[in-house]
Amino acid sequence: MTVAVEAIYENGVLRLEKPLGFKEHSKVRVIVEDEGETQPNIDTHDLAGWTAIDALIGIGQALAPDVSERHDDYLYDDPHA
C-alpha cells in the first residue's frame, strides 16, 4: 500500500498530521520531500501526456519531408540513396 501524508518536522521527529492505516510495528519505507522545493509542472488533466505528444507531432517534417518514404536511408545512413 502506498500512502502520501503531510508531516511537520519538530525537534528531530516527523509528526504526521493524520494517522496511518498500518498495523503496529509494520515496516515501511519513508521518502521525504521538502514541500518548499519546486515540483515539476504536471497537468493533472493530462496524465497520459497527450499535450506533449501533440506538440511533437510534425516536428521533423521541415528537416526530412520524405522520411516516410526513405526511413531506411535516414535510419541506416545509406550513402547510395
Looking at this protein, list some descriptive labels.
alpha+beta, 2 strands, two-stranded antiparallel sheet, 10% strand, 81 residues
Can you tell me about this structure?
Helices cover 16% and strands 10% of the residues. The chain has helices spanning 50-56, 71-76, and strands at residues 7-10, 13-16. The relative contact order is 0.08.
Describe the secondary-structure layout:
Blueprint (H helix, E strand, L loop, with lengths): L6 E4 L2 E4 L33 H7 L14 H6 L5
Antiparallel strand pairs: 1-2
Oligomer: single chain
Average pLDDT confidence is 79
Count the beta strands: 2
Low-confidence region ranges = none
Number of helices: 2
How much helix is in the residues?
Answer: 10-25%
The geometry reads as elongated
Cα(first) to Cα(last) distance is: 56 Å
The computed structural class is: alpha+beta
Radius of gyration: 25 Å
Strand order of the largest sheet: 1-2
Main beta-sheet strand count, sense and barrel state: 2 strands, antiparallel
Order of helices and strands: EEHH
In terms of DSSP E residues, the strand content is 5-15%
Would you summarize the structure shown here?
16% of the residues lie in helices and 10% in strands. The protein has 81 residues and is an alpha+beta fold.
